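DM from R.C. (forwarded with permission)

"hey, sorry to bug you on a friday — could you get me a structure for this? deadline for the figure draft is monday and I only need the backbone to look sensible"
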Amino acid sequence: MEPLMNLTLVAIHIEASARAVPLGPAMLASVLKRAFPEAVQTRVLDLFLQQSAQACAEQILATDPAWVGFSIYVWNRALAREVAEILRRENPSLLLFAGGSEATADPEGMLAEGFLDLVLPGEGEELLVEVIEHLLRGASTAEIRQGIRPAPVKDLATLPSPYLDGSLDPTAYPGMLWELSRGCPFRCDFCFESRGTAGTRRVPMERVKAELQRFEACGVSQVFVLDPTFNFDKRQAKAILRLIAEEAPAIHFFFEIRSEFIDRELARLFTSIRCSLQIGLQSADDAVLRKINRSLDRADFEAKILLLHKAGATYGFDLIYGLPGDSLQGFRDSLDFALGLAPNHLDIFPLSVLPGTRLQATAPDFGLQHLKEIPYTVIASPGFSETDMRTAARTAHACDVMYNQGKAVPWFAMLLDWLSVAPSELFGRFAEYLDTHDNPDITALQAAFFASCFAIPKEAAVAADIVTYFGYSGALVEVAARTSQEAAPTRTATFHHDPRALLEQLQAGITELEDLACVLPEWPCQALLFVEGEETHLRIVSPEDHSFGML
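My reply, with the result:
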């Protein structure tokens, strides 16, 4: 019997996180296990951007490979190149190849860099099986290159599941990636998802159910769904949500959806399970969106988001600054529109002109100046100067710190009303504040910032107390939700007023800052915040007081 050929498939993740799951390499390992059970031994190796190229190379060489394959994306291309150069120097006989979005977008450029023997663009399962067959027969890399013809997998039912055949162990990672479809029904110019694919193809429901049951049996706590428009096929989306409610009610799911396909039943089904929704708004200006082959009916968007809001769903938006035809003021208007809909979080990115996208071809027509190398971000455009791009970046950072990291949803609208400012103006002020103030305790940082915004000391103290309570409370609930600690997380916080009295007033509907400042007596104290179930409770620890019960 011929000896097994050792193949190591390398995933280089951005960082250790619940999303750092090598699903792509595991899919390849799964098809190779089926195709070459006695000829190829495949290993999947997790590496991280924080590692040095030398350390990565040493881990790869320790697997004693004959062949090494990299999954290359925008974030890891530079490191993968350094690692491959070391591998080539340490073991010249290694065969090195790559797949992934960068390999698909720029196959000739990657080959020209000289560190790879083969580049496999497109969906890799069927193509890699073909390449391995040629290698086992002794074909040269030059011969294989000439025969590479990327093509999408037409029927996802023909692919084995790495979760079901043991190629990927759900217990080995803090989260899971779950592929439900490939391709995208839309043709957004800045996105690579739909280029070169045969429409949208979906994983059959039999496999969906089997994988879901596997996740539940393995105690998976969170699943990130790989489907860029989960609710495009509303009938199937609703069937999957019902299946999740039945088979995996304890798992938290993350979905990407489009607002156009939300209806009342779908909103209700989302709230019947543990999940978070991400919606690609990108811009609130329809004229801007049409330049990248998208559109927006603001009234319809607001109405569909209202369905989610009324149902109690957790949802967030994506925004992009630097889009063709946009401006700094246009971005600020989009930011104000988005936050007026009370999202749970807001992710903001600069536009990237990715290789292989239609935007790469049209960028000169729009006057987009952008980096030609990774990360390909826009530097300036006719309506968005380089200075404006930097200002937008500062605003985006301030929004992330205050709104996302600072758990601002419960109090954000209240404080905005009190200050009579738009969200974009508030973030501008906060960006300036961050220039001269630094504190790893984001809640304390925010409390100090808002205290500085009010001229009347009593109002400033109330604002600081509100931020303090909801900031620490939200952080504790989040920690409790993503961990399985037997002991609930706790936090001691300092208040200017009795937080129990503050919460009673807020629950009674008294939300005007002036009114709260009048009815709340000053009573500096410390309170212990802790989580029981899914709710935050507090107990006064200093000074001693028995006038209120524990909340």
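R.C.: lifesaver. Residues 169-405 form a domain with the TIM Barrel fold (CATH 3.20.20.70).
me: no worries. The first strand starts at residue 5 and ends at 13.
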